[in-house]
């Protein structure tokens, strides 16, 4: 009596998975290299001299002039003073955007009130308009209330972010069950308690993404601070860095050193909030599987 061969046949789909997986990995590696290259090139230029940058072909290796270029930046502009102003503006703006946008999005997504669809449609229209159209009305408003030249003039126009409200509205609409809110209403919870105790803990991934978005926008804003900040001691980092481009010859190695120093806080913010965004998204995927 012969024993039957119990070895399962190798399927064709399994043989095809490896080439497809290899192609996907190669594509991801290429995408990472393309994304990282501008940051690496900034470091290369910041560690070399302007003469090295102008060479043909350009120097692609790291140099030894980083500390010298950083010293030139610190001697040319008030880097740390403007960075402190930017940190204050970015942190306050981000906190207010998270609170106000999430509150408005929760009302739009889970409560029915007169004019809700009209107001939300108007919000979407404003989201499509270029931000430059609001510069003149904002400046007139800041002038009327006496805030021209003050840092708080940068936070007020960014409070109600149309994209942030839309983003959180879509997330809350699908991610916060109506049954939980109905149960909370039966227990006597009002609007703010439903928002604070039920909605906010469930939308942490969306809030993490919005925090990154709002912080980066506030940190990199240049046009509005350039217009409204008339006091040299209150300028933000991007306005201060623009002063490195003076004269007929620009020291690009010094400029890149300043850009590199200005980008480091953004890397830290992204690392902190991206971890919460990825952890929350992964947790939701595991629970939904």
By DSSP, the count of extended strands is: 0
Share of residues in strands: under 5%
Low-confidence stretches: 284-289
The end-to-end span amounts to 47 Å
Structural class: mainly alpha
Percent helix among the residues?
A: over 70%
Largest beta-sheet characterization = none
Output the helix-strand order.
Answer: HHHHHHHHHHHHHH
Describe the secondary-structure layout.
Elements: H1 12-46, H2 50-53, H3 66-76, H4 79-110, H5 116-128, H6 135-144, H7 152-155, H8 162-175, H9 178-186, H10 191-202, H11 204-220, H12 223-228, H13 237-242, H14 252-288
Relevant terms:
globular, 289 residues, disordered C terminus, 14 helices, mainly alpha, 0% strand
Characterization of the model:
Helix content is 73%, strand content 0%. By secondary structure, the protein is an all-alpha fold. Helix 1 (12-46) packs antiparallel against helix 14 and helix 4 packs across helix 8.
Structure in a nutshell:
The protein is mostly helical. It contains 14 helices and no strands. The longest helix is centred in the C-terminal third of the chain and has 37 residues, at 252-288.
């Amino acid at each position: 009596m012969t024993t039957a061969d119990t070895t399962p046949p190798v399927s064709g789909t399994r043989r095809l998975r490896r080439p497809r997986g290899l192609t996907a990995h190669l594509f991801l590696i290429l995408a990472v290299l393309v994304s990282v290259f501008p940051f690496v090139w900034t470091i290369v230029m910041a560690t070399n001299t302007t003469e090295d940058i102008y060479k043909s072909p350009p120097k692609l290796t790291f140099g030894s002039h980083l500390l010298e270029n950083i010293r030139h930046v610190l001697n040319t502009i008030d880097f740390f003073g403007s960075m402190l102003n930017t940190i204050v503006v970015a942190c306050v703006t981000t906190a207010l955007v998270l609170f106000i946008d999430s509150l408005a999005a929760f009302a739009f997504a889970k409560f029915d009130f007169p004019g809700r669809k009209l107001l939300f449609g108007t919000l979407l229209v404003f989201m499509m308009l270029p931000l430059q159209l609001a510069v003149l009305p904002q400046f007139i408003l800041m002038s009327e209330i006496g805030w021209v030249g003050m840092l708080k003039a940068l936070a007020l126009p960014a409070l109600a972010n149309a994209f942030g409200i839309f983003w959180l509205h879509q997330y809350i609409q699908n991610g916060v069950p109506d049954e939980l809110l109905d149960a909370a209403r039966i227990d006597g919870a009002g609007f703010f308690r439903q928002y604070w105790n039920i909605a906010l803990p469930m939308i942490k991934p969306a809030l993490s993404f919005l925090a990154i978005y709002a912080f980066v926008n506030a940190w990199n804003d240049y046009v509005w601070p350039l217009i409204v900040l008339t006091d040299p001691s209150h300028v933000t980092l991007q306005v201060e860095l623009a002063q490195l481009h003076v004269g007929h010859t620009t020291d690009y190695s010094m400029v890149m050193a300043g850009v590199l120093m200005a980008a480091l806080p953004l890397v830290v913010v992204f690392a902190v909030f991206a971890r919460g965004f990825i952890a929350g998204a992964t947790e939701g995927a595991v629970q939904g599987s």
